[in-house]
């Protein structure tokens, strides 16, 4: 299953609302996960089951979607949110990741 | 506190072998599925392999027949044996813990190690 993220990069300001999309080449039900990765660091789990916030993740992060189309929204972007975001489908093997979306400071 | 500590990375010649290990001080690894995910320099994430709680391994097509994942619950470790290394295997290899032992939690990675760099070059 191929995952296509868009955009591949974006520039935004602190306080902006940011939306990242992830489209699967075939339906994955709600088996979609979002990770955040900062330079030189391991990825960090944000959302699983398409919309469930991982413990400790700020509530400004939100996920939605099912089937083939998914969205990660960051409400009121904070300085610590500048990073690369990846979606992953866990519906079937081989597990696959999207190509990533780099969120940069405008 | 959950910690995952990878070891065994390094510089290897093409065709060579390497064994990566992941130790898990602080939690009992045996009840969770564990995965390896790699990231080539400047590139995105690529899932490599998963071992379930029964020690059954599942692999990406790109590494099947060359990589072997295993777990030793008595030592609380997971390993990845890598044979027939190619230049395109150069990457940071992350060990990651599944949220649980069965689908879909097993495939959702809630804790990651800091990674082990594998460089394949002559």
Can you walk through the features of this model?
The complex is a heterodimer of chains A (106) and B (122). Chain A is mainly beta and 106 residues long. Chain A has strands at 3-6, 9-12, 18-24, 32-37, 44-48, 52-53, 61-66, 69-74, 84-89, 96-97, 101-105. In chain A, the strands form 2 sheets. In chain A, strands 2, 4, 5, 6, 9, 10 and 11 form a 7-stranded mixed sheet that branches. The radius of gyration of chain A is 13 Å and the shape is globular. Chain B has 122 residues and is mainly β. Chain B has no helices and 11 strands. In chain B, the strands form 2 sheets. In chain B, strands 2, 4, 5, 6, 9, 10 and 11 form a 7-stranded mixed sheet that branches. Chain B has a 4-stranded antiparallel sheet with strand order 1-3-8-7, with no helix packed on it. In chain B, strand 7 and strand 8 form a beta hairpin. Chain B starts with a strand and ends with a strand. In chain B, 40% of the residues are buried. The interface between A and B is medium-sized, with 24 and 25 residues.
Note the gap between the termini of chain A.
33 Å
Multimeric state: heterodimer
Name the structural class of chain B. Answer: mainly beta
> Largest beta sheet of chain A, briefly?
7 strands, mixed
Strand content of chain B: over 45%
Q: What is the chain-wise order of helices and strands of chain B?
A: EEEEEEEEEEE
Biggest beta sheet attributes of chain B: 7 strands, mixed
Helix content of chain A: under 10%
Shape of chain A: globular
Roughly what fraction of the amino acids of chain A lie in strands? Answer: over 45%
- Rg result of chain A: 13 Å
Count of alpha and pi helical runs of chain A: 0
The separation of the N and C termini of chain B measures 40 Å
The total strand number of chain A stands at 11
Helix and strand sequence of chain A: EEEEEEEEEEE
Number of strands of chain B: 11
């Amino acid at each position: 299953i191929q995952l296509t993220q868009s955009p591949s990069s974006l520039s935004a300001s602190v306080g902006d609302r940011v939306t990242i999309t992830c489209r699967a080449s075939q339906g994955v039900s709600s088996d979609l996960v979002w990770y955040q990765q900062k330079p030189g660091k391991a990825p960090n789990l944000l959302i699983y089951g398409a919309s469930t916030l991982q413990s400790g993740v700020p509530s400004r992060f939100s996920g939605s979607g099912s089937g083939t189309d998914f969205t990660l929204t960051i409400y009121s972007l904070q300085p610590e949110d500048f990073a690369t975001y990846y979606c992953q489908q866990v519906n079937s093997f081989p597990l696959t990741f999207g190509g990533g979306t780099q969120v940069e400071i405008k | 506190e959950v910690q995952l500590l990878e070891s065994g990375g390094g510089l290897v010649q093409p065709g060579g072998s390497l064994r990566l290990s992941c130790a898990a001080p602080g939690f009992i690894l045996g009840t969770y599925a564990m995965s390896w995910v790699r990231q080539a320099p400047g590139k995105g994430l690529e899932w490599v392999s998963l071992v379930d709680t029964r020690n059954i391994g599942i692999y990406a097509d790109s590494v099947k027949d060359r990589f072997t994942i295993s777990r030793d619950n008595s030592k609380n470790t997971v390993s990845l044996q890598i044979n027939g290394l190619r230049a395109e295997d150069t990457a940071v290899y992350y060990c990651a813990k599944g949220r649980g032992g069965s689908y879909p939690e097993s495939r959702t990675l809630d804790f990651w190690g800091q990674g082990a760099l594998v460089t394949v070059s002559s």
